[in-house]
Amino acid sequence: MTISKTFLSVLCILLPFIGEISAQSADNPIEIEVDFASEKGPMNPVWAWWGYDEPNYTYMKDGKKLLGEIAELSPVPVYVRAHSLLVTDEGPRAALKWGSTNVYTEDEQGNPVYDWTVIDQIFDTYIERGMKPFAQIGFMPKALSSKPEPYRHFWKPGAKYEEIYTGWAYPPNDYEKFAELVFQWVKHSIDRYGKEEVESWYWELWNEPNIGYWQGTTEEYIKLYDYSADAVKRALPTAKVGGPEGTGPGWDKAAEFLTTFLDHVKEGTNYATGKKGTPLDFITFHAKGSPKVVDGIVQMNMGAQLNDIEKGFEIVASYPEFKNLPIIIGESDPEGCAACSEADYPHNAYRNGTMYSSYTAASFARKYALADEYGVNLLGAVTWGFEFENQAWFAGFRDMATNGVNKPVLNVFRMFGMMGGNRVEVSGDLAYDHNSIIESGVRGERTDVNALATKSENSASIMLWNYHDDNTKIGDTTSVEMRLKGLVKGKMLLEHFIIDQKNSNSYALWLKMGSPQNPTADQIAQLEEAGQLKLAASPKWITTEKGETILKLDIERQGVSLLRFTW
């Protein structure tokens, strides 16, 4: 790459700000070109969606704190999806992979008794923070379950996953009573929050009904969807309802489940109305990776997650009637079980540190690329990771914070919150794209050094990451040389935000403290500060001529940087 004198003069100003370049890594830097004049499509905030199993954590101390921080990092309302909103109380209300609201019971004559107290507490917490419910219709109240006993599970990490599929997972004993519950819930929501607010929500039925979460047949799920969708629309014709929230379209049976559902929606006889077809305002499915331990090292499998997304997009795109409907990836994560701690599941050791951060940056960029390739309308990708109350510090759950302290991964979403406008072209000496990752993962000698870039009227941003599937060589650096084109001419402010072993990393500080399980108040304050997104150095004013410049920087393995230009 030939560097002009103009570029060199800018570069000399930036070097102290960006950081020193080691002689070894500078010999063969990765070359990346960002053309801010070449737009690829809008930077829709598909990342501004969260979800979790345990709904009662919502209004607890650390739950409220984290929801507030998530709301504050996003320039748009964040949508929140939680399980068990219709589950009957039995035993402690909140536990791992369990929650309840006791919204529906029956009197001795079998008449419905509705109690909205806990659901209101959950949704009030969202609304007060400017967030919105991605309202999950489920699971089955005990009084309506076709197999009510046993109803409550008492799952703990290390136990068999199948133990959770108890009475709440069964079809109803009366579809009309379940539909009436849904109808009353929507009507109550309108009365409490107003028609305009509820029109902005998304209503969806169940969770992963193609596996154990649904102990009925596919046809029974479709029947319940017909009754539920009809109930939502009767209560509010302008409400948005969708499904089917199946998991893993990358495997044949899951793909068949999605197509069976879409075929019914398109031309099947509606169980509730007897008419042809069923309301469908958006389409949902799940996508998960599959990490494992290889020779004592955690090895991620982003390719599995991207394969699920690709197959889901391919199926939706094959239906002309549905191709333009919004798609919400209802859970989109490196693996399946948020409540499975590192202590019991060693392959989850990626969750506390920067590997989760770099994986998140790299995978979201590929979600945009896949949506572009298939021409589908990706609306959201739900990160299934919240917080777990009263657990050990950095226990290795898939969460955004531990005991009120943000983990490094949350800072990637803070970076996303600063990116707006349109996505622009990134090219260069890039070892991986979404197709190669699906085919063989990020397993080669080279790491995935790549970028996602955007430009709006008064700013431009570059998110740069250095990811590898193998959780080794943390702290090694790669030198990157970025040629930037299509910027505005003149002066602009450059800020460099960074997540690595020294910055925006509460976990690294906790380890340095000696991994305390009873940290002092002063230590907690330090950890909270370390959990915030940090600048690599003070912001600098730079001047570009012809709207072009060159930047050089080193980026750590599993690190993420955000370069933001404002004018």
TrEMBL record:
Residues 31-537 form the Glycosyl hydrolases family 39 N-terminal catalytic domain. It comes from the Bacteria. InterPro entries: GH (IPR017853), GH39_cat (IPR049166), Glyco_hydro_39 (IPR000514), Glycosyl_Hydrolase_39 (IPR051923). It comes from Algoriphagus yeomjeoni. This is Xylan 1,4-beta-xylosidase. Residues 1-23 form the signal peptide. Belongs to the glycosyl hydrolase 39 family. GO terms for biological process: carbohydrate metabolic process. Transmembrane segments: none annotated. The active site is at residue 208. Keywords: Glycosidase, Hydrolase, Signal. GO terms for molecular function: hydrolase activity, hydrolyzing O-glycosyl compounds. SUPFAM superfamilies: (Trans)glycosidases, Glycosyl hydrolase domain. Pfam families: Glyco_hydro_39 (PF01229). The keyword Ligase does not apply.
